[in-house]
Design a protein that fits this description.
Structural class of chain B: alpha+beta
Radius of gyration of chain A: 13 Å
Low-confidence stretches of chain B: none
Oligomer: heterodimer
Distance between the termini of chain B: 41 Å
Shape of chain A: globular
Shape of chain B: elongated
Strand content of chain B: 15-25%
CATH superfamily of the largest domain in chain B: Cation efflux protein, cytoplasmic domain
CATH class of chain A: Alpha Beta
Largest sheet of chain A: 5 strands, mixed
CATH superfamily of chain A: Cation efflux protein, cytoplasmic domain
CATH topology of the largest domain in chain B: Alpha-Beta Plaits
Structural class of chain A: alpha+beta
Mean pLDDT of chain A: 85
Number of helices of chain B: 6
Number of helices of chain A: 2
Mean pLDDT of chain B: 84
Helix content of chain B: 40-55%
Number of domains of chain B: 2
Chain lengths: 121, 198
């Protein structure tokens, strides 16, 4: 059973690590992209980033890359839209969010996990 | 292969449990050197002496000619076969579960789950002009997920040209098949009475 969550973009919590800040910013940026309906935590609910205080940022993982930046992966629930342009838009949005948070981004992987045919915006 | 993988995992778990129990037994046995455990000593609890006698008798029967030796040979061959199957289950490569649109070590990957692609293909094919119904498409992917084949089965009304519908479905699923490197295969047949044109 997939665990899906529709999360409104939220504010960052002060004092959290750079990795968690980037995961939060990436998830929020992706959710603002038209065509993205939600995030998906995977079949076991393990595709997430723990925010330290028990909060789970579902549908996003953020790992330190060898080249001094971070690799961000997103599992998204999408509307019936063309996937390649959607992926590019998500990448661009995450890149912009990382730049505004002044965190170096190495790569962004986008996995379309579910389709929500009625979720077009 | 899925069954073999599950069996390998199960046997791995059971083996770990057995090793943990054996370690615990040895630890308790060693403790007996400091504190006398009496009848609570693990070898006395499981009566190792009588187990040794039973096993010794069985080993003697195996060494001698007779039906037990034949049975032991069969069991040995079975165990070897099971071992080979478990090795296959453990070492075989997992099938790719993502259809990959882009894979770049520098920029990242763009991918989709096959189920999602099938749902999208069906939703798009249903919008093709003249299609009365579309079955759940089949998607077979290559090992690396960069290529594959998408089979869509659609039905048409008597008044619809099947070739026109085939072209329409092909065009409809194009936004999925082209970027994902999927070879489309469209099968069109006459629908049964009572189905409606979209």
């Amino acid at each position: 059973m997939n665990q899906q969550q529709r999360i409104p973009p939220g504010a960052t919590t002060p004092g959290e690590s750079e990795r968690v800040r980037l995961a939060r910013a990436a998830r929020d940026a992706a959710l603002r992209v038209p065509g993205v309906v939600g995030v998906d935590a995977g079949p076991l609910g393990a595709f997430m980033t723990g925010a330290g205080d028990g909060e789970r940022l579902e549908g996003v993982t953020c790992v330190a890359a060898p080249g001094d930046g971070y690799d961000v992966s997103l599992r998204l629930v999408c509307a019936l839209v063309a996937l390649q342009p959607l992926g590019e838009r998500v990448r661009a949005a995450v890149g912009k969010a990382a730049a505004s948070a002044r965190i170096k981004l190495e790569s962004v992987s986008v996995h379309v996990a579910e389709l929500d045919a009625g979720g077009g915006r | 292969m899925v069954l073999l993988r599950a069996l390998a995992r199960l046997i791995g778990g059971v083996w770990m449990l057995a090793l943990a129990l054996l370690g615990l037994g040895i630890a308790v046995y060693c403790l007996d050197a400091l504190i006398s455990l009496g009848s609570a000593r693990p070898d006395r609890l499981v009566d190792l002496a009588s187990v040794g006698r039973h096993v010794g008798r069985f080993l003697d029967q195996i060494a001698a000619r007779g039906p037990t030796a034949g049975l032991a040979l069969l069991c040995g061959l079975g165990a070897m076969l099971l071992g080979i199957l478990l090795l296959l289950g453990t070492l075989s490569r997992r099938k790719q579960h993502l259809a990959v649109l882009e894979q770049d070590t520098d920029t990242g990957a763009l991918a989709a789950r096959p189920r999602t692609l099938r749902e999208m293909a069906r939703a798009m094919a249903e919008q093709a002009r003249g299609a009365t119904s579309v079955k759940r498409p089949k998607l077979s992917l290559s090992r690396d997920g960069t290529q594959g084949r998408l089979t869509v089965k659609a039905t048409h009304a008597r008044s619809t040209d099947p070739h026109a519908l085939e072209r329409a479905v092909l065009d409809a699923v194009g936004p999925i098949t082209e970027p994902f490197g999927l070879k489309p295969r469209i099968r069109v047949r006459l629908g049964q009475r009572g189905t409606r044109v979209q």
